[in-house]
Each structure stands twice: as structure tokens, then as C-alpha cells.
Design goal:
26% of the residues lie in helices and 17% in strands. The protein is built from 2 helices and 4 strands; from the N terminus they run ββββαα. It has a two-stranded antiparallel sheet with strand order 1-2. The protein binds zinc ion (ZN).
């Protein structure tokens, strides 16, 4: 069984009932995200592009002080 989180792993909104959960492509409830963030297997927030996301992750990697892993970080996404 997959762990069912009690709050959204994206926006941290508490998920109190199954209606609050997002949906997967197969119409199953998402175990990790709320309906505001995740619907039909996709994130609803598309205001951030893949490139922006990469930059964001790269920035996080540098923040953590692991320049050596920078390449690994950008390869993971
Ligand atoms: Zn959410």
C-alpha cells in the first residue's frame, strides 16, 4: 500500500477527506497531493516552466553548498 499523506506534498494544505485529494490519470485519488495542485495525473500549476524549475533546483543545490553535485542535480530532473 502506498502511504497516504495527511497534507498536500505540494502546497501543504491539510487533506481531511478524500474529496480534497487530487486525482490520477486513472481517476484514482492521489495519495500525495490535493485537488488544487494535482488533477488527472498532472500538476495544475503550470505557471512555472521546465527551464524555470531547473534553475530553481540548481539554485537549491548551490544553496545547500554542494557545487560538486550541481551536475547530478540538474541531471535528475
Ligand atoms: Zn496542494
Amino acid at each position: 500500500m502506498m502511504k497516504e499523506y495527511k497534507k498536500c506534498q505540494s502546497c501543504s494544505m491539510p487533506i481531511k477527506k478524500s474529496e480534497d485529494r487530487g486525482t490520477e490519470r486513472n481517476s484514482e485519488k492521489s495519495s500525495s497531493y490535493c485537488k488544487h495542485c494535482y488533477q488527472e495525473g498532472e500538476f495544475t500549476q503550470k505557471n512555472i516552466s521546465v527551464e524555470e524549475m531547473k534553475e530553481f533546483v540548481k539554485g537549491k543545490c548551490m544553496e545547500m553548498g554542494f557545487p560538486k553535485f550541481l551536475q547530478a542535480c540538474s541531471l535528475e530532473i
